[in-house]
Write a structure and sequence with these properties.
By secondary structure, this protein is of the alpha/beta class. It folds into 2 domains: about 1-85 and about 105-175 and about 220-320 and about 480-538, 3-Layer(bba) Sandwich (FAD/NAD(P)-binding domain); about 175-215 and about 325-470, Cholesterol Oxidase, domain 2, CATH 3.30.410. About 25% of the residues lie in helices and about 20% in strands. It has 12 helices and 25 strands. The strands form 7 sheets. Strands 7, 16, 17, 18, 19, 20, 23 and 24 form an 8-stranded antiparallel β-sheet that branches. It is globular, with a radius of gyration of 22 Å. Bound molecules: flavin-adenine dinucleotide.
Length: about 550
């Protein structure tokens, strides 16, 4: 597929998009071929791939608004979106395993979803993750070799050529950080000194072995955020067969028996139903997707009965298996203040908490400013500091999303349940130890004044881990793909036991991947579109 290109400047595309979408959203049709719910990482990919066929009439619905804002487009401003109208602002339940703390669980709201508010890191997931998905789904199309082909096809890699692993003709512009901070180089040097290999980029060979360190791959183009919405949908938004409806809440999936026939939406205080003549695709992220499924009668029969929701299909796994990376940041004071560069996160490291592991279970992203938890902040946050955002790539703890009420605008209950599995505490101690070994090593001496958090000489006990734990914002797994009774979708992402309905977003991942999750969500979108096109001969 080629990118949509017409001669004319970007301003011309802006105008065409504005006019086209204003006209289309003012003249909504009663039915579209496909309705994609959620314009986030996966939804953006699906809407674009379907709309590439001019005979397909696609409606893309997004609860949030436009992505035209400096806080989105300037890579250095990503933290300013947290807690803003671009954040769903979920709050996890108080967690006894974190000393009763209730963690904020941000997720992106608006065109691009998470890919418009995140840290722009591109991380494709480890070979073993994808091979596990293939085994769980019974489809080799989810395996590493097949997925690597998709990555090569969609990437437009700007770093040192690596044709075995990296593509250069796709839609997703990926670059290594330009003129990175010396702090990022120091992490690679520190890793090497500890025997952790250094790689030219994190998404080639490094994702197949026991780990390593590299400069981060970033979705930044010409100094601006290159979200998956910008990569996929924006260049197509002037097409007559793609309607993008912002500020519109999907309230329920509408069924005729067990066939999904459309969605009920709320737009400008009106509630209306729009039909999908072919399929409805749910891509609303790992918290809102299970909520919508349950509100629509897909979930555990007893749970739905408690809320008086008529059952369409008993799917006990909906909302279960909530997974997320958990991080325990350690912070150092700069010797001399240094301004963050690019997104402020330019080096990444994967390693093992125990030597006998075959794949990494620890995930580090260096952050060039302090990122304490509200509890560790009490130890004193330096005015000029940086954080090793270090966490568990494969936590054993599992959480759950449940309905709080039947009101479609109410937040669900998010029981993140982090650190409930004792094995996570053991890995967390190894993680914090490695963090301090790196940050206090010779490579950082020119840049570091002192360790501020945990603090020079302080003992690490379980309570430090509980106080430091925060989300990496990689929620997934709540409508997982598989063949067993607790799975929600099959290998084609069709929801078990109903027709005309797929789920395609981070919810379907059986297990959180090794690394940041937007790239795997893009793969979920590509796979969903591939399967829809093949099913309907598009
Ligand atoms: C602060 C932050 C930093 C992160 N950093 C990184 C990073 O650097 N690299 C990385 O790889 N990953 C990162 N992530 C995670 C990554 O962004 C997500 O894993 C990814 O975006 C998930 O994709 P998705 O398609 O599952 O859902 P999302 O991208 O969350 O998209 C879901 C979309 O559905 C919309 N929606 C939800 N409910 C409704 C409804 N009822 N009606 C209509 N629309 C609805 C949402 O508004 C949203 O736009 C970060 C996330 C956050 C929040």
């Amino acid at each position: 597929m080629t990118d949509h290109f017409r001669f004319g400047d970007a301003g011309d595309l802006d105008r065409r998009v504005r006019e086209n979408q204003a006209q289309r959203s003012a003249n909504l049709k009663p039915a579209y071929d496909f309705i994609v719910c959620g314009a986030g990482a996966a939804g953006s990919v699906i809407a674009r791939r379907l709309a590439e066929n001019p005979a397909c009439d696609v409606l893309l619905i997004e609860a949030g608004g436009s992505d035209e804002a400096e806080s989105v487009l300037d890579p250095g401003l990503w933290p300013t979106n947290l807690g803003s109208k671009r954040d769903w602002g979920f709050q996890a339940e108080p967690n006894p395993h974190l000393g009763g703390r209730a963690l904020p669980m941000s997720m992106g709201k608006g065109l691009g979803g998470g890919s418009s508010v995140n840290v722009m890191v591109w991380a494709r997931g480890h070979r073993s993750d994808w091979d596990h998905f293939a085994a769980q789904s019974g489809d080799r199309g989810w395996g590493h070799e097949a997925v690597l082909d998709i990555y090569r096809r969609i990437e437009n890699w700007q770093g040192t050529p690596d044709p075995q692993y990296r593509g250069t003709a796709g839609l997703v512009w990926i670059e290594p950080p330009r003129d990175p901070s010396p702090l990022a180089g120091a992490l690679l040097d520190a890793a090497e000194a500890l025997g952790i290999p250094r790689f030219d980029n994190p998404n080639g060979q490094m994702m197949e072995g026991t780990g390593g360190a590299a400069f981060t791959d970033m979705l930044v183009r010409d100094g601006r955020r290159h979200s998956l919405y910008r990569a996929y949908v924006r260049p197509f938004a002037d097409r007559p067969n793609l309607t993008i409806l912002t500020d519109t809440l999907v309230r329920r999936i509408v069924f005729d028996g067990r066939r999904a026939t459309g969605v009920e939406i709320e737009r400008a205080s009106s509630i209306l139903t729009i039909a999908a003549s072919t399929e409805v695709i749910i891509s609303m992220g790992a918290i809102n997707t299970p909520k919508l499924l349950m509100l629509s009668g897909l979930g555990d029969r007893d749970e739905l009965a408690r809320h008086g929701i008529p059952l369409v299909r008993h799917l006990p796994g909906v909302g279960h298996n909530l997974q997320d990376h958990v991080s325990f940041g350690c912070t150092w004071e700069y010797r001399e203040p240094m301004a963050p560069r690019n997104s402020g996160s330019e080096a990444t490291l994967y390693w093992k908490s125990r030597p006998d592991l075959e794949a990494p279970d620890l995930l580090f992203c260096q952050v060039e400013f302090p990122v304490p938890s509200e509890r560790t902040a009490m130890r004193g946050v330096p005015a000029h500091g940086w954080t090793m955002f270090a966490g568990l790539a494969h936590p054993h703890s599992r959480g759950q999303v449940r309905l709080r009420s039947t009101d479609p605008s109410a937040s669900p209950i998010v029981d993140a349940n982090m650190m409930s599995d004792p094995r996570d505490m053991e890995a967390a101690h190894a993680c914090v130890k490695l963090c301090r070994d790196l940050g206090n090593s010779d490579a950082f001496t020119p840049y570091v004044g002192r360790e501020a958090i945990p603090g020079v000489g302080s003992e690490i006990d379980d309570s430090f881990i509980r106080d430091a734990a925060v989300t990496y914002w990689h929620q997934c797994g709540t409508a997982r793909m598989g063949l067993d009774d607790m799975s929600v979708v099959d290998a084609t992402l069709a929801v078990h036991g109903v027709e005309g309905l797929r789920v395609a977003d981070g919810s379907i991942l059986p297990k959180v991947t090794t690394g940041n999750t937007q790239a795997p969500c893009a793969i979920v979108g590509e796979r969903a579109a591939e399967m829809l096109r093949s099913r309907y001969g598009l």
